[in-house]
Amino acid sequence: xxxxxxxxxxxxxxxxxxxxxxxxxxxxxxxxxxxxxxxxxxxxxxxxxxxx
Length: 52
Hints:
By secondary structure, the protein is mostly helical. Helices cover 48% and strands 0% of the residues.
């Protein structure tokens, strides 16, 4: 019974994380970490100083 409860909790957490990533992507926000960003996603808006 304990294994079932832990499994349900893990599934709820995984579904919540997936929904959060989906909402971020649909809203045009970056869903990844900024430290490893290649600035190639749709969320990156170049500043005037970045444009050549």
